[in-house]
Design brief:
Helix content: 25-40%
CATH topology of the largest domain: Fructose-1,6-Bisphosphatase, Chain A, domain 1
Order of helices and strands: HHEEHEEEEEEHEHEHEHEH
Number of strands: 12
Structural class: alpha+beta
Mean pLDDT: 92
CATH superfamily of the largest domain: Fructose-1,6-Bisphosphatase, subunit A, domain 1
Shape: globular
Low-confidence stretches: none
CATH class of the largest domain: Alpha Beta
CATH architecture of the largest domain: 2-Layer Sandwich
Oligomer: single chain
Radius of gyration: 18 Å
Number of helices: 8
Strand content: 15-25%
Length: 262
């Protein structure tokens, strides 16, 4: 069983607190589907409320830490070496459409490195946690990346750009090269859960562009602590700076990268 440090306990408590309201609000989404504007406004408010709950809990416990959240202005704390990185509702479009695949993501960063992570999927009651050097865990059970190495047996995840995004041609090219070589590609709509699933061995790899730090911060640590590889799509480690990510088990990494590239 996992044992939580004081910081991780604070993070788990904050995630659970926000989850109660989000689960309740998710139950109301179906009733609002008749009104497009009504449901959009409702979900936006649910997102903001969840972030306020998380921020209040974390700030109360660690008032000197900085803050980076999806729904609020970044704050430099009295202790500039530490900050929280939070996405209160990753998978908002899924939530909006009544799809039960979304999560709360909380990461703690120290001197530019994520050292603690929580990703909570309240609908499935799955709590992913990790701390630097202490492994990755799912509901208190140790998890590790998959050991598959043959591309034909591997399932990958990605995020397909929406709207008139400039990265769409690159993505289509990558899909056309990878899909004939693997067992499948999934697009489930939550970067946090995609990374958590790589850590748990459910996917062999994941890649995506146009991401923010709060989308992936917690998931990056989960994959690392589960024995996997994480980096950016340029072959470096600057995921936050490039807004791109590639994560996989170590066995398949080289073949995964080769399949994506021209």
């Amino acid at each position: 069983m996992a044992t939580y440090t004081a910081n991780l306990n604070v993070m788990v408590k904050a995630a659970r607190s926000a989850a109660r309201g989000l689960v309740r609000d998710f139950g109301e989404v179906e009733n609002l589907q008749v009104s497009v504007k009504g449901v959009s406004d409702f979900v936006s408010n649910a997102d903001i409320k969840a972030e306020e709950i998380i921020r209040a809990d974390l700030t109360y416990a660690r008032p000197a830490y900085g803050w980076l959240g999806e729904e609020s202005t970044e704050v430099i704390g009295d202790d500039p070496s530490r900050r929280w990185i939070v996405d209160p509702l990753d998978g908002t479009t899924n939530f909006l459409h009544g799809l039960p695949h979304w999560a709360i993501s909380i990461a703690m960063e120290h001197k530019g490195e994520v050292v603690a992570a929580v990703i909570l999927d309240p609908v499935k009651d799955e709590m992913f946690t990790a701390e630097k050097g202490a492994g990755a865990w799912l509901n208190g059970r140790r998890i590790r990346v998959s050991a598959r190495r043959d591309l034909s047996e591997c399932v990958f995840a990605t995020g397909i750009p929406f709207g008139a995004k400039k990265t769409m041609p690159e993505m289509i090219g990558e899909l056309s090269r990878l899909m004939p070589q693997c067992a499948g590609v999934r697009r489930f709509g939550s970067a946090a859960l995609d990374l958590a699933y790589v850590a748990a061995g459910r996917y062999e790899g994941y890649w995506e562009r146009e991401l923010n730090a709060y989308d992936v911060a917690a998931g990056l640590l989960l994959v690392r602590e589960a024995g996997g590889y994480v980096g950016d799509l340029n072959g470096g480690k600057d995921v936050f700076g490039t807004g791109t990510v590639l994560a996989s088990n170590a066995e398949v990494n080289a073949r995964f990268v080769k399949a994506l590239r021209k």
